[in-house]
Amino acid sequence: VSVASASASSSSSGKMRVAISGASGFVGTRLVAKLLAGGNDVVVLTRDVEKARAALRNSFSSGTIAFADPSRWSAAIVGCDGVVNLAGEPISTRWSPAIKAEIMASRIKATKRIADAIAACPAEKKPRALINASAIGFYGVSENRVFDESAPAGGDYLSKVCQAWESTARELERTSPETRVVLLRLGIVLDRDGGALGKMLPTFQIFAGGPMGDGAQWFSWIHREDAVGIILESLSNVTLRGPVNVTAPNPVRMGEMCAALGRTLGRPSWLPVPDFAIQALLGEGATVVLQGQKVEPSAALAAGYKFKYERIDDALGDI
Fold first, then answer.
1. CA distance linking residue 61 with residue 43, whole number of Å
2. Most C-beta atoms within 10 A of its C-beta, which of 10, 164, 192, 309?
């Protein structure tokens, strides 16, 4: 599908036209499917059109989908109602200095390109919202503090990535004040075919389902359906702006998470997965799993978002 064929203005009919980067990722594929099923038009901003087309082939339904490579991102964004930027290197891999640089650069570069393209749109064809991914890593880690959207940033590497990512998106508030900027501070997104759970399950099964590390660290999770739900809410609800924690209202400690997973799988949850096994898998990236933070979704709740999965047992039961 060409960009032109999807470019008719859609706001008059209640349909949206949404540009998405990172569309072939764990959250993006589900978001594309949901938008198309609702009869909306989607423009996929991608570095590799063929790869994105293949990754999204099961998401096509009604609605129109178009693909744009980086040379055409600017043209593709013109006339969209909103832009959702989910692009970035995955974090749950082993970190080397090169990977750390790439995690940072991949997020900054895509965000800057998108923000610049929005700012350059003619006023009458400018997207009304940029929904930009970030992560709860923004807050750093803690076993006893509770973080809502007003909490300050942490000082570790992941926090610095999130701060740089968010400030690149926030530049748009200066260059295009009429565009609402929402910063999605994503928690640990759960669903059956990928994400953190996909990584945890094999290890969990080897060690008969024990907690990762000492089990006392907080695990601020969200079901993928609710992550997509909050993104859709952010596109349409003009009261949402700035940081939005994309986490369920009932975070759990890792030990509780693993006990719930053990119940769901019908396996015991008694032998902890030793730190060294996780360190071996993820290296420095293990901080994502071994240390956590207790995060509350105050902004989403205040905006009236209704969670489909509020408790970990319900979420895992569905998965």
1. 14
2. 309
d(CA 30, CA 17): 16
Cβ within 8 Å of residue 177, ≥6 positions away:
none
CA dihedral 216, 222, 224, 227 (to 10 degrees): -150
Q: Which strand (E) or helix (H) includes residue 275?
A: helix 275-282
Q: Tell me, what's the pLDDT at 262?
A: 76
Half-sphere exposure of residue 186: CA atoms within 13 angstroms, side-chain side: 29
Q: What is the largest CA-CA distance in the chain?
A: 60
- Residue partners of 232: CB distance under 8 A and separation at least 6: 31, 34, 35
d(CA 215, CA 219): 9
Residues of the chain with pLDDT under 70: 1-13, 89-94, 194, 196-213, 267-274, 276-289
H helix or E strand, kind and range, residue 117: helix 97-120
Q: Specify the length of the chain in residues.
A: 319
- Distance (Å) of CA 86 to CA 32, 130, 231: 12, 11, 10
Query: How far, rounded to the nearest angstrom, does the alpha carbon of residue 21 sit from its chain's CA centroid?
Result: 11
In the structure, how many helices (H) and strands (E) does the chain have? 12, 13
| CA-derived radius of gyration, the chain | 19
